[in-house]
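Tokens in:
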């Protein structure tokens, strides 16, 4: 869902739960990238971790286990993609009682997008820690997505073919009220 405004497209985190919540797309985003309401961080799983390795977001520390994960533990997947899926599921389960972050997949199966739901400045975002070079901070907390990242298939660009391309129809909701938006 989105609301059309004078200088572009504004999506608001109060209207939906998505990685692009709060992104203001203005007319010059092809040159400047986009500004974001809530900070983003990109984490990469370079190599599948080993059991008992850890990483942390703010005051929350997660430990990898071969199996039988409980509490702040994450079961390792057989592949990096399966481990990324397990990490995302655990972070999202702790969104309201731990990290304050929401995790999403990106274009590459080894990358995770974290959105800080509690602050609007990257300076106030939670810290990142890890005990090895397997689950690493690829891009620190930021309030802007540069144009180079928007065009990179590993981050935000969605590959389309002629078969995939379909027309988009915007529908207006709540006509005449302050909650009017297009989706």
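Residues out:
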């Amino acid at each position: 869902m989105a609301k059309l405004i004078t200088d572009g497209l504004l999506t608001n985190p109060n209207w939906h739960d998505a990685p692009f919540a709060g992104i203001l797309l203005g007319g010059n985003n092809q040159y400047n990238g986009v500004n974001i309401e809530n900070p983003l961080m990109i984490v990469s799983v370079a190599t599948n971790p080993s059991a008992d390795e850890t990483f942390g977001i703010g005051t929350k520390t997660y430990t990898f286990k071969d199996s039988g994960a409980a509490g702040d533990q994450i079961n390792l997947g057989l592949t990096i993609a399966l481990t990324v899926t397990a990490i995302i599921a655990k972070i999202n389960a702790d969104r309201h009682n731990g990290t304050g972050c929401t995790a999403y997949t990106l274009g590459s199966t080894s990358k995770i997008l974290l959105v800080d739901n509690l602050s609007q400045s990257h300076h106030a975002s939670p810290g990142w820690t890890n005990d090895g070079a397997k689950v690493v901070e690829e891009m620190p907390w930021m309030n802007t997505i540069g144009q180079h990242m928007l065009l990179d298939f590993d981050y935000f660009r969605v590959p389309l073919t002629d078969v995939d391309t379909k027309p988009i129809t915007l529908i207006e909701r709540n006509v005449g009220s302050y909650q009017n938006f297009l989706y």
